[in-house]
Amino acid sequence: MLAFQGHQILQKHPVLTHYSPPVSSISTNPSSLSTRPSNNQSIQSLCLKNNLKQALQLLYKEPNPTQHTYELLILSCSRQNSLSAAGTVHRRLIHDGFDQDPFLATKLIDMYSQLDSVERARKVFDRIRRRTVFVWNAIFRALSLKGNGEEVLNLYRKMNAIGARSDRFTYTYVLKACVAGEGLSWGLSKGREIHAQILRHGYESHVHVMTTLVDMYARFGCVDDACFVFNEMPERSVVSWSAMIACYVKNGMSLEALELFREMMGESDDLLPNSVTMVSVIQACSALAALEQGQLIHAYVLRKGLDSVLPVTSALVTMYARCGELELGRRVFDQMDRRDVVAWNSMISSYGSHGFGRKAIDLFNEMQCESHA
């Protein structure tokens, strides 16, 4: 649902005698007219089979890699989580004159983001001269995932200044950037500015954009604004409903969250809550110590097969503990195939707060043993 030296990325691969610089940055070079058999299909096939090592070996023998070959090599580096291979592919790509290809620049930024090398992603962005909306979106996403909200919004300001167009993904990323910088006083005001731009450019009918807007207002505690956006949406997805329910829960309005959930359930037979929805609803029951409602929700979770989802079962453990039903909580806890720290902490603290110190200590020791296993 994120170190490198700038010179390294520009370092050329040792020049092979059969290399010939391309005239175009798309996929073919003049020397592609030679009778030398192409290794491109073989490289692509190896990438699709996750055999990156052999693909790189063939790359050294191929004088004219195509755009598609580089695309698959980049994706393969991401899948293999190999930063060293990524550097190799990138250097060769630059050598072959593809460094100004916006499509490949987008793929490179995404790759470096996945490899947790945002500095290299920045280098790719800085180097590319023709920045399509896809290139802008890729760097926005990479920086947002690293929590660099201020940098995203500064770049977005430059994007607007040069008249580059935004799309629905742009608005999603910059809204998330406002939240990434929520500790900054201007985060909310910038979010309101972007909201105005969304309306001005006619994106109020895009479910994903408006759902992100609901979430942005929720993170800043602006429940009325989130509610207004939600109510004005011409259509709502399960993600939209879940975002509004979570907004109520996060801001201490658990009764409103449960009421909205009931409204959601009556909205349409096709609108089925997912695990994210159920976590928020269970948290609302927990905050209200609403045992009866929580048990009904638990029964629904079992019917829909959501009891295998870790955050859902962890929330159930917490809910039963808050309601004082330690045995029911322990039963859910014992049936979990795997447990996260939330489930362990909830069960341990519930024993401690209800006067079962010995059980709390025993369970803590069990957690320690399991973590070292």
Structure description:
The structure is a single chain. This protein has 373 residues and is mainly α. Among the domains are: 2-7 and 41-130, Alpha Horseshoe (Serine Threonine Protein Phosphatase 5, Tetratricopeptide repeat); 137-235, no CATH class. The protein is 67% helix and 0% strand. The chain is built from 20 helices and no strands. Helix 5 packs antiparallel against helix 6 (118-127). The longest helix has 16 residues, at 357-372. The radius of gyration is 26 Å and the shape is globular. Mean pLDDT is 88; it is low at 1-35.
How many beta-strand elements? 0
Mean pLDDT: 88
Low-pLDDT runs of 5+ residues are 1-35
Derived structural class: mainly alpha
Query: What general outline do the C-alpha atoms trace?
Result: globular
Q: Count every helix, treating DSSP H or I runs of 4 or more residues as helices.
A: 20
Q: Tell me what portion of residues adopts beta-strand conformation.
A: under 5%
Distance between the termini: 29 Å
Please state the CA-atom Rg, rounded to the nearest Å: 26 Å
Oligomer: single chain
The H/E string reads: HHHHHHHHHHHHHHHHHHHH
- Biggest beta-sheet profile: none
Helix content: 55-70%
Gist of the model:
Helices cover 67% and strands 0% of the residues. The protein is mainly α.
List its salient traits.
single chain; Serine Threonine Protein Phosphatase 5, Tetratricopeptide repeat; disordered N terminus; PPR_rpt; PPR_At4g14850-like_plant; repeat; TPR-like_helical_dom_sf; RNA binding
Helix/strand layout:
Elements: H1 40-48, H2 52-59, H3 67-80, H4 83-95, H5 102-114, H6 118-127, H7 133-145, H8 149-161, H9 168-180, H10 186-200, H11 207-219, H12 223-232, H13 238-250, H14 254-267, H15 275-288, H16 291-303, H17 310-322, H18 326-335, H19 341-353, H20 357-372
Helix pairs in contact: 1-2, 1-3, 3-4, 3-5, 5-6, 5-7, 6-7, 7-8, 7-9, 8-9, 9-10, 9-11, 10-11, 11-12, 11-13, 12-13, 13-14, 13-15, 14-15, 15-16, 15-17, 16-17, 17-18, 17-19, 18-19, 19-20
